[in-house]
Every structure is written in C-alpha cells, then in structure tokens.
Amino acid sequence: MGRLRVLLFATAREAVGRPRVDLTIPDDGTRVETVLAELTERYPRLVPVLAASRLFCNGEPVARRAARLAPGDEFAIHPPYSGG
Amino acid sequence: MSVRLTVRPLRLAPAYAELAGGVDGGVALFIGRVRPDGGRSGPVTHLFYEAHRAPALAALADLERSARARFGAHRVVLWHRLGRLGVGTASVIVGCAAPHRADAFAGCRYLIERLKAEVPIWKTEERRRRARPRRGRPGPRSGR
User: Fold this and answer.
1) Is residue B95 predicted with pLDDT exceeding 50?
2) Read out DSSP for B36-70?
3) Domain-by-domain residue ranges, chain B?
C-alpha cells in the first residue's frame, strides 16, 4: 500500500476542513473515480464542489475519471477559478 | 516573460519598467483591486487569495505565449498577489506592450479575462457582519 496526497483549494478545502488529505491506495494504483468515491463518502459536502471542479495529477489536468493514480502522486481538486 | 505569484505588494513602476524596455508604441496596464462588495451578510473587508503554484505558473506562461502569438505582444506582465488583502489593495497587475495601441489594449483585456477563467487562483471573501437586532431582548422600558 502507498500514499496518495490530495490537495484541496477554496470551496473544496472548506468542504473538507483542511487543505490536504492523505489516502492509502494499493501499490499498483487506483482509478480517479475510486478516489473521488472515497472522498465523498468521508466528506459528503464535497459532492457539489466536485461537480464543478477540474482535477489535476502532479500538476497536469486529468481528463478521464477512469485515469489511474499511483502511490506518491499528488492529486488536486480545483473548484472554479476566481483570481483577479 | 514576466509572470509572478507573490505575497509581496504589487507596484506599478516596476511593472511599467518591465513593459517599457522595448520600443513598442503601445503599453496597456490593468490593475485589479479588492473592492468592498456589499451583500446581506455585510461588506467585504478582505479577500484571501491562494493558488496551486506550479500549474498556475504554467498557465500564466501559456497566456503570455498566447498573447504574443495573437496580438504581437513583445512584452507581457502577469503578476498576481497571494494572501490576505484589504479593500483597495492591488491584487493583480496585467500589462501588454505591442507596436500599436489597439493590440496593446486588446492583449491586456485578453490576458486579464483569461487569467480569471483559466489560472488556478482562488479568492475567499471575508465580510464585516452587519449588526442585527437580537431576538428576545427587551427594548427600552416605557415609563410608568
């Protein structure tokens, strides 16, 4: 088993109550959709936030929820941007 | 190229110096500031800005390249401040230097609009709560 770090910003951070969460995942990795299911089970307030969020892995956009994440990856949830 | 995410105050003079280093005929600058938006829960007193730094810097660099290609911009400034900022404080400076004013204006507008939509930066509002009358509290006693 290995560690997956999840970074949370703005409304995602507010929904979870902290800026990052570490999840334990299998050595051969897991799917994005599995991680999202675990997060929403633990933190139901994330559900509406995720519906409008973009997802990133190691700084790169994740296009498909079937994409795989590996131990050591940094997975980020980006709610709609509001800079400026 | 000049892209920056910083907790330090943004200053106009260095931004202009960055843009004016060439011989472009047009230099357009935009400064975004924290405004005291009203609302039922009271006026905004501060905005807290945060960014996902590496993807944000990459997105800013993409914008800079895009402005060069679309508007012939020779120099671009994309500076965003992070942290807790009070009303009236500059949160962003965007600038575009191009041979002619039309491209400088259009490039500057393009940069700030794209920045707001595509760069992983977020603001969270802090408001001053409006005073509300408390329930159940007796008013002034009438004289008997």
Assistant:
1) yes
2) ----TT--EEEEEEEE-HHHHHHHHHHHHHHHHHH
3) 2-127
Candidate from A56, A83, A84 with C-beta closest to B55: A56
Structurally, chain A folds into a number of domains equal to: 1
Nearest Cβ partner of B123 from A14, A60, A83?
A83
* A46 is a domain residue: yes
* Domain interval for residue A41: 26-52
Superfamily for the B2-127 domain? Molybdopterin biosynthesis MoaE subunit (3.90.1170.40)
Whether residue B52 and residue A84 make contact (CB cut-off 8 A), yes or no, is no
Give this complex's ipTM: 0.93
Instruction: Please report the sign of the dihedral spanned by the C-alpha atoms of residue B40, residue B41, residue B47, residue B49.
Output: negative
Per-residue pLDDT reduced to its tens digit, A5-54: 999 999 999 999 999 999 999 999 999 999 999 999 999 999 999 999 99
